[in-house]
Design brief:
five-stranded mixed beta sheet; about 210 residues; about 15% strand; alpha/beta; Nucleotidyltransferase, domain 5; about 45% helix
Length: about 210
């Protein structure tokens, strides 16, 4: 089943006008920021001609296509939150992901009435009704849209960082722990954007 509007429709019927889907990109990599996106689709507006999917199931070309459609759509509001690797090391990746999501909500430009989070956690200290859905990016349209926007935005950031740190192949693996990336870390040592709290980077700093 592709992402659909079932969750949004339920909430619209309950009187929530501004329903926001949230997803992140970059929880697992060894380098770079974690990034979240928030997406709000206008109440009762169902986008029938945009068959999106979980960003992980799309090609880079497909993600770029949907990113352009989503971010330029007149019935969609969206916001981005970015938390650096330094903050990740300081507060841990779960708290950094929560912080990125809060920032994304703040950057929406509207006041949400209900949040749908992809995952199994909720946002603390947020006075907004919310619900977490495991694999929400595979089921809920607004979460899937948020995942695409987050992934494309983060990939662009990592491609730009590759120009500054060309020894690691960030343009290829986007900071994830591939064999090439780990080899390059061992060959050149970690750089400023590596997450010191993530293994195997952490083992190099401890040695």
């Amino acid at each position: 089943m592709k992402p659909n509007f079932n969750e949004e429709k339920k909430l619209w019927k309950q009187g929530f006008n501004f329903v926001v889907g949230l997803d992140e990109s970059g929880r697992g990599p060894l380098a770079g920021p974690v990034l979240a996106a928030a997406v709000c689709i206008r109440k009762n507006f169902v986008i029938k001609n945009l068959k999106i999917n979980d960003s992980k199931k799309l090609s880079q070309k497909q993600r770029a296509y949907f990113y352009k459609k989503l971010t330029n759509h007149k019935n969609i509001k969206w916001g981005i939150g970015i938390v650096s690797e330094k903050v990740i090391d300081r507060i841990n990746i779960l708290q950094a992901t929560r912080l990125a999501m809060k920032m994304a909500v703040k950057n929406l430009g509207i006041q949400p009435e209900f949040l749908i989070l992809d995952g199994n956690f909720t946002l603390n200290n947020v006075n907004i009704s919310q619900k977490s859905i495991v694999k929400g990016d595979e089921k809920v349209f607004s979460c899937s849209a948020a995942g695409i926007i987050a992934k494309v935005t983060r990939d662009k950031i990592m491609e730009n960082l590759h120009k500054k740190y060309p020894n690691y192949g960030f343009d290829r693996h986007k900071g994830y722990g591939t064999k090439l990336h780990i080899k390059n870390i061992n060959d050149f040592g970690p750089c400023k954007i590596h997450r010191k709290s993530f293994y195997p980077v952490s083992s190099i700093y401890k040695s």
